[in-house]
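Suppose you are handed a protein chain with no further information: no name, no annotation, nothing but its sequence. What can you learn? This example shows the usual starting point.
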Amino acid sequence: MADGWSYFVYVVLPYVTIVAFLVGVGYRVQRWRKLPRAKSIIFPPVKGRTGTVKAVGTDILLFVKTFRNSKVLWAMAFLFHVGLALVIFGHLRTVTEFSWLWGLFDLSDEGIKDVSLIMGSIAGIALLTGVVLLLGRRLTPTCRFISIFQDYYVLVILLGIGITGMGMRFFSEIEVEEIHHYSRGVLAFSPESEIKNAWFMWHFFLAQTLIIYFPFSKLIHLFSKPVTEAWTTR
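A reasonable first move is to predict its three-dimensional structure. Written in structure tokens, the prediction is:
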């Protein structure tokens, strides 16, 4: 049973995840492109594509509108998004090494591991803290009244991803080379279910579950906001 589950997570699910993500995002983009054009959905109005890009980019990076409406929510969202961005950036090491970056700081192999441990831990703690705060906010009477199952589902999955990621980091060491080897196998359509690490397997499973659901969740605002505002504003 364990071998069957491992085969599903490592060999079958990655391709289901890739197809579902690409098809889902493509479908959503086509729907956004069919939205009717508006004179402006940004206030105060901006002129030209450059102004639109600047306004949308500023709001995406700094959450200006959220800051104006609620400082507390802004702090939670900012912590969560910064942690998530750092985690995603750090996970790029699973498919490639930043040799040029390590060379700039003249880091040894041990130095790279130390930096990865420190920065990864900070990012993971920031992400987990943001998720817990946002989940706690959802459980307040006011927010619970307007929340739906999907709101809790995404946060619980993210919480599970964060916990298993931190557990893998502190309680079950795994070599990056193992993940590199596995990733290359997936890209070459010859994956191997050889990473015998329960923390990693559940972390990977939950991450794939989230990626499959991503195009159909509210997390898609990462793409929808710049696309819809750039497309519908003139």
